[in-house]
Amino acid sequence: VRYSGAARRALDFAERHGIPVVETTAGRTLVPHDHPLHAGPLGITGSSSANVLAAAADVVLAVGTRLQDFTTASWTVFSPDVRLVSLNAARFDAVKHGALAVTGDADAGLADLAAQLESWRVDPSWTARAESERAVWDAHVGKLRSAGSEVPSYAQVVGVVNDLSAGDDYVMTASGGLPGELIGGWRGSGSVSMDVEYGFSCMGYELAGAWGAAIAWPGLVTTLLGDGSYLMLNSELFSAAFAGHPFVAVVCDNDGYAVIARLQEGQGGKPFNNFYADCTTSHASPPRVDFARHAESLGCLVFEASTVDSLRTAYAAAREASVAERRPAVVAVKTQPSTWTEAGAWWEVGVPEHLAGREEYERVKPAQVRYLKS
After folding, report:
1. How many domains does the chain have?
2. Which of these, 367, 287, 374, lies nearest to 78 by C-alpha position?
3. pTM higher than 0.85, yes or no?
4. Strand boundaries in 312-357, DSSP class E
């Protein structure tokens, strides 16, 4: 939909026929958040609102999506009886999940489908569910954003950036727990304003990609990343500072690889080599990284925060200073290591038989549907 320039066409199609709309990661922000037909983002890193509607749908029109693992919650997000119609320029993707394949361009294909449907509309009660379900999700995210805590959560970091962003801004992330928080929690206006590189959870893309986006994008780019990603690839901060390309990087320091620890421990595994506290060292007091000073040494402007209020102040100042001085501004903020926004979807992760999580795995696994119809 994005590559075809079909966002307006898709929304017109939905409005004409009263069909609720959900977004995948690649299509995120193409639909205005507060549109009455917008039910939210779909899948593991999406929203409970979209996932609830997907589970209840009898027919799903999938436009331009690969229907991959995260989108389909490992093949559990749709009803076993659903009928999928997949419009895709790639034949390989159009036939997935036993769909009725319509191979073609998203914009042209939607125009043809609209002509076939003429004045048909879905039941008004189904149309209304998009707004009512999304209201429940919005209230949940709003509660997480306003929760009182000394150390900000990822949901609160996303909330601050969302609140202070302008209409022509561009926000991005790539790895760890931030994709789920950004995809599920961001409230966009319908512009092309998000890039989440989650094909391979590419740690370090957040800075190299932000520099590239800052070169091409007319508005301000903000990238969100964890301390682990920062350590993976930070040299492009100097490149961007040297070349004179402004963007804001919000570095969330949660003392390690928090989302990997979540996967490890959530399945019943023992903590091992993810948080610094669980890593082997011969030092009684091991060295730690001062992210602010490190970024400063690479030519960046630096702002530090430790609470939601100080983050709001720091991020606002970073936005202004980055543009004024034509170089990256890094906001270093300590964040909670184990507070997440749950979308109510399942992700298939292999669990050894001896771990406690195996019981839950075996309970949910049968719900997977391969949609292989004759």
Report:
1. 2
2. 367
3. yes
4. 329-334
